[in-house]
Structure formats: C-alpha cells, structure tokens
C-alpha cells in the first residue's frame, strides 16, 4: 500500500488536537493539517509515521480512539457505497470488491462458524505504524456497523497479530468484548444474525416499496409501469457496488417471484438484463459529467469487477472511452 486517504490523515490530526495538541506541533511535518485538507491521498510513509509519532505522544490506544471518531463520510466513494447496502455485513463484501479493483491491497473476508461470523482483515503489519492503523480500522468497524444498523450491535471478540500495549483502557471501551493479541490474523467477530440485519436505509426504502405493493393487492391501486421500472432501477443502483444483482435478489426485495418480476418488466417493454445495462450506463454518464470520481471508482459503483471491463462496456454504449466522454463535456 503506497498511499492512504488524506481524509484519514486529517481525521487523525484533528483527533490529536482534540486530545491536547496544537497546530504548531505539526509545523515541521511534511504535510500540515491545512495542506492535507486539499489532497486526495497521503503517502504511506507519512501516514504510518504520523500514527507512530502520535501514539508515542498521546499514549497507547490513540489509533483505537481515532477509529471511534470515524463516520461513514470519511471513507469517500467506499463510504457512499455502504449507504446503500441492504444488510449490515454487506459492507465487507463491498470493501473487498473496492480494494481488489482499485488497489489490490488488503481484503476483508467473512468466515462463518456456527452462529458467529469472523471478519478477517488480511493485512501484513510490517511496521508499528501499520499495526496502529489496523487498530484504527477495527475500531472504526464498530462505529460504522452501529451507524449502518442504528442499533448498538457489538463484536463478540477482536484479534490482533501484534503484542498488547501496556494500557488497554481505550481498547476495552471501544470493543467491550474479549480482545486477543499475538494471534495468527487480524479479525473482528460478530453474531451472524447481527451482520444479517437490514440496514436502516434499506429498511426505509424497501418498506416504502412494500407498502405500495400492499395498496396494489388490497386496494386495486396498480403501480404504473413507468414508476415500477424506476423503483426496480433504484434497487439495482443500490445493489451494484456489491456486483451485478441477480434477478432473484431484486425479486426477493420486491416480494415477487422471478417470473412475476420478469412479467411486470415485460409489460413495460424491457427485460431485466436491459435494465441492468441501462442503469449502469446512466450512473456512469452522470458521474463522469457531474463528479470528479476516478474511472476506477465509477467502475466499482456500477458493478464491474475490473476497470478494463467497464471501459469496454462504456465504449460499446457511447463509442467513446470514459476519459474521452469526460473531456467532451
């Protein structure tokens, strides 16, 4: 990993200031707080060195305390994709796709054992700064999952590959569960049922749609074809960062059988496959026109597993590459 998000660096320095440091304390740092706010990324060397210096200055558990201050918006495009997850644990699937597509760095993997799911973070900690960064990542996981579910779900166990610091008070407060050190892998474990909880956003949007279904069945108020297609498009858009959703997945969200969903779309003159492509093309064009997101990030948000595959598809849709399309606007 050569770079980290500048947002994470800014969050770290702001947390240090909240714990008593001053702006002047960073005067001789390569990248100041104000300079970092103008950047997209910060070098790994600077980022990890900052973790080490601040842990020495502010005491063990500083990374954990930084993690507790993280919010979904701090994660940029990846955080944006989390907002549309249907299940809490889906954030790990999206994170795995994101990092594999954009940087091939570390991978989240879920291993289910009985009623507990172990979320493994495959990351090599070759220096102390990376160990501290991983402490922040696992700590942030706790607050992000609580924000996604709007419930106080808590891990059942947390594991670190490195040795324990001499003060665990910040760890105990953040994780509130058994914490193991000198383990073969980094991991945070949850009850499987907690990871399968509907996200608060998914509950609201799906419940709204299902209420329309109830009206249609009990009051004879049929959802207009064009409105029905827009509703399905919206569900597809929300699902794409996890990969192209199967028709069974969307049918399940709409409380329909595959056959009924196919028939309802056919009545409006479209197929499910056509709707997938239309939604992907619409999202891609809109983001190229109206955002500064990279082509790789747009490929992720539109459900592609490789940027090259996205480039080929976009060329087929528009007879232009994504970069050519953006330049022509």
TrEMBL record:
Record InterPro entries: AraC-type_N (IPR032687), Homeodomain-like_sf (IPR009057), HTH_AraC (IPR018060), Tscrpt_reg_AraC-type_HTH (IPR020449)
A Pfam family the protein falls into: HTH_18
Spans through the membrane: none
Gene3D superfamilies listed in its UniProt record: Homeodomain-like (1.10.10.60)
Keyword set, alphabetical order: DNA-binding, Transcription, Transcription regulation
Residue ranges of every copy of the HTH araC/xylS-type domain listed in the record: 230-328
Protein name: AraC family transcriptional regulator ligand-binding domain-containing protein
């Amino acid at each position: 990993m050569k770079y980290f998000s500048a947002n994470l660096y800014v969050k770290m320095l702001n947390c240090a200031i909240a714990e008593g440091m001053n702006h002047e304390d960073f005067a001789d740092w390569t990248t100041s707080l104000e300079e970092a706010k103008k950047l997209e990324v910060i070098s790994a060397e600077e980022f990890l060195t900052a973790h080490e210096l601040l842990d020495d200055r502010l005491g063990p558990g500083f990374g954990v305390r930084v993690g507790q201050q993280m919010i979904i918006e701090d994660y940029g495009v990846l955080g944006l994709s989390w907002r549309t997850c249907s299940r809490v644990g889906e954030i790990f699937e999206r994170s795995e796709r994101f990092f594999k597509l954009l940087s091939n760095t570390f991978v989240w993997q879920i291993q289910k054992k009985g009623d507990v799911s172990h979320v493994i973070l495959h990351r090599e900690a070759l220096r102390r700064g990376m160990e501290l960064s991983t402490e922040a990542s696992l700590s942030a996981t706790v607050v992000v999952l609580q924000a996604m579910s709007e419930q106080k779900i808590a891990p059942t166990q947390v594991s670190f590959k490195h040795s324990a610091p001499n003060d665990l008070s910040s760890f105990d407060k953040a994780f509130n569960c058994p914490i193991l050190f000198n383990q073969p892998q980094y991991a945070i474990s949850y009850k499987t049922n907690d990871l399968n909880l509907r996200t608060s956003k998914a509950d609201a949007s799906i419940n709204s749609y299902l209420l329309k279904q109830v009206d249609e069945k009990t009051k004879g108020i049929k959802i207009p074809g064009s409105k029905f297609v827009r509703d399905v498009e919206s569900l597809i858009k929300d699902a794409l960062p996890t990969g192209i959703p199967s028709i069974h997945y969307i049918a399940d969200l709409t409380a329909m059988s595959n056959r009924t969903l196919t028939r309802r779309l056919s009545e409006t003159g479209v197929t499910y496959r056509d709707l997938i492509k239309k939604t992907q093309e619409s999202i891609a064009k809109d983001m190229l026109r109206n955002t500064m997101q990279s082509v790789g990030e747009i490929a992720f948000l539109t459900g592609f597993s490789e940027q090259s595959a996205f480039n080929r598809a976009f060329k087929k849709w528009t007879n232009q590459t994504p970069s050519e399309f953006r330049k022509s606007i």
